[in-house]
TrEMBL record:
The lineage of its organism: Eukaryota, Amoebozoa, Evosea, Eumycetozoa, Dictyostelia. It holds the Pfam family AMP-binding_C. It comes from the Eukaryota. Residues 450-518 form the AMP-binding enzyme C-terminal domain. This is Acyl-CoA synthetase family member 3, mitochondrial. One of its GO terms (molecular function) is medium-chain fatty acid-CoA ligase activity. One of its GO terms (biological process) is fatty acid metabolic process.
């Protein structure tokens, strides 16, 4: 008899049976897996994990796979076995991987033959077993295969159990393990599926690393909840993405072409750069624009989207990117509307359904009667349970009424309710001579000021007299001549109040260093000025 956990994600998968769930790019024709395949494979992995005990009882299991079907069947297998999934970043060095495994107290590591030796080295150091998963189909016996015509036996897994531990980027301290329950995840998924109108007719191209909520929840989990197709690229590559979009709906995927794409601002910047520097034939550029236009939705998040990137991407694609706001601890909280005409650049829209917010204003911190400024606080069923084995850090993350303190400063337009992110209170709000200044605002103005600038980061640099200086790190587009510091300041003064003009200046040749999620760690960048 078929067995299945009582979790909603699994029960929904039963509805979609022989529909395609996961495609491994570039093996689109040979590595296509149905929802039945996913249920079969996850149950086989659960059987391996439950060899000694029928229920892992929230035991942490680390897993190390690239962006492919192996990743998904392992995650679902851990859940089906009653365990807590701990995804490992494929791009991290051994030192960071070891920290995640040790800190989460994972009892074993799942991986494939390609990565077994690397994981075995860590497993030996930590004295925990490393399991090399069999190839798809090798362990799937008749007894574990789902037969859609037969009844299935449901076994109970409480939705309030721990489901996932995702580690923060560690921009302000050592990475912390964010524990979410199955109920938290279901709330996060349901909100996005409803608001962005996911259906089983959707087909998303997945290019994001899968150790972060953006890829794990917004892309993969939302797709599988909806019965959609999730096509997984091993890593982001400009040419591969554009070539894939060019063929989808024209020479391939005729019945279900790619309809969704979600990424971080850095990826959109790279796509702009690739098209502008590589594609010179007008006919080819028009074909690329048409390929992007065939998508029904393109989303940007995880960091602020510069207005210049938003506008330039619209020029080459015809797409108005939907900006949203979320974080590991809360999933997605704010989003611009799905209706293109209601999206406003530089803002993150409104609270998503089911998400409660309030703004913790500071005295005298209102810009004027039409705007409220303060730290964003969030409540709702999507908010995480705790930081793993960090009671004090968990307690400090919430106020006395149970609101999660995001650490992000927002500006709310009181006439419309629309919100804008001003930045992290710790690194993006610069306190200079009595003024509180948004680093993100300055970054946006600098990028709009000179089209030759590829990237910009604004930092608060300690200063005994004024509290903080404002430092600007600039990267120019290939072949473009940098401004002198004096020219830079003169141009800034045209667009910015005098107290917002950077008084430190650094030009880098290549790109601003980023972490595995393509985010800038401003505390690390401060060292460049020392």
């Amino acid at each position: 008899m078929n067995r299945i956990p009582s979790l909603k994600l699994f029960n929904r998968a039963l509805k979609f049976k022989d529909r395609t769930s996961i495609i491994n790019y570039p093996n689109n024709s040979t590595q296509r897996y149905t929802y039945n395949d996913l249920l079969n494979e996850s149950q086989s992995i659960a059987n391996i994990l439950n060899y000694k005990k029928k229920d892992l009882e929230q035991e942490r299991i680390a897993y190390f796979f690239g962006q492919n079907f192996d990743y998904v069947r392992s995650q679902w297998g851990i859940w089906a076995a009653g365990g807590t999934a701990v995804p490992l970043a494929i791009s991290h060095p051994i030192h960071e991987l070891q920290y995640t495994i040790e800190n989460s107290k994972s009892s074993m590591i799942l991986t494939n033959s390609e990565n077994y030796s690397k994981m075995k080295e860590i497993g030996t150091k930590l004295n925990i077993p490393v399991i090399e998963l069999p190839k798809v189909g090798e362990y799937t016996t008749t007894a574990t295969q789902f037969n859609p015509t037969e009844q299935y036996k449901q076994y109970s897994i409480d939705s309030n159990r721990n489901a996932l531990i995702i580690y923060t980027s560690g921009t302000t301290s050592r990475p912390k393990g964010v524990v979410t329950t199955h109920a938290n995840i279901e709330a996060q998924i349901q909100t996005l599926v409803d608001y962005w109108k996911w259906t089983e007719k959707d087909h998303i191209l997945e290019v994001l690393p899968l150790h972060h909520v953006h890829g794990v929840i917004n892309v993969v989990s939302c797709a599988l909840w909806s019965g959609a197709i999730c096509e997984m690229m091993p890593k982001f590559d400009c040419k591969q993405v554009i070539d894939r979009l060019l063929e989808s709906g024209i020479t391939s995927d005729l019945e279900q072409p790619i309809s969704l794409f979600m990424a971080v601002p850095t990826i959109y910047s790279k796509l702009i750069k690739y098209v502008n520097e590589t594609i010179t034939d007008p006919t080819e550029r028009l074909a690329i624009e048409s390929a992007f236009k065939r998508l029904r939705l393109m989303v940007s998040g995880s960091s602020a989207l510069p207005e210049s990137v938003r506008n330039e991407f619209q020029k080459i694609s015809g797409q108005v990117l939907l900006e949203r706001y979320g974080m590991t601890e809360i999933g997605m909280a704010l989003s611009n509307p799905l209706n293109v005409d209601q999206r406003i650049g530089g803002t993150v829209g409104f609270p998503l359904p089911g998400v409660q917010i309030k703004i913790q204003s500071e005295p005298n911190n209102n810009i004027n009667n039409n705007n409220e400024v303060g730290e964003l606080l969030v409540k709702g069923p999507q908010v995480f349970k705790e930081y793993f084995e960090k009671k004090e850090a968990t307690k400090e993350a919430f106020d006395e009424d149970g609101w999660f303190k995001t650490g992000d400063i927002v500006e709310k337009d009181l006439s419309t309710g629309r919100l804008k992110i001003l930045g992290r209170s710790s690194v993006d709000i610069i306190k200079r001579g009595g003024f509180k200044i948004s680093a993100l605002e300055i970054e946006r103005e600098i990028l709009d000021m000179d089209s030759n600038i590829q990237e910009c980061a604004i930092l608060g640099i300690p200063n005994d007299e004024y509290g903080q200086d404002i430092g600007a790190i600039i990267v120019y587009k290939k072949g473009k001549k940098p401004m002198t510091f004096e020219e830079f300041k003169t141009n800034c003064k045209v667009r910015l109040a005098h107290y917002k003009v950077p008084n430190k200046f650094l030009v880098l040749e290549n790109e601003i260093p980023k972490n595995a999620m393509s985010k800038v760690n401003k505390k690390e960048l401060l060292k460049l000025f020392s």
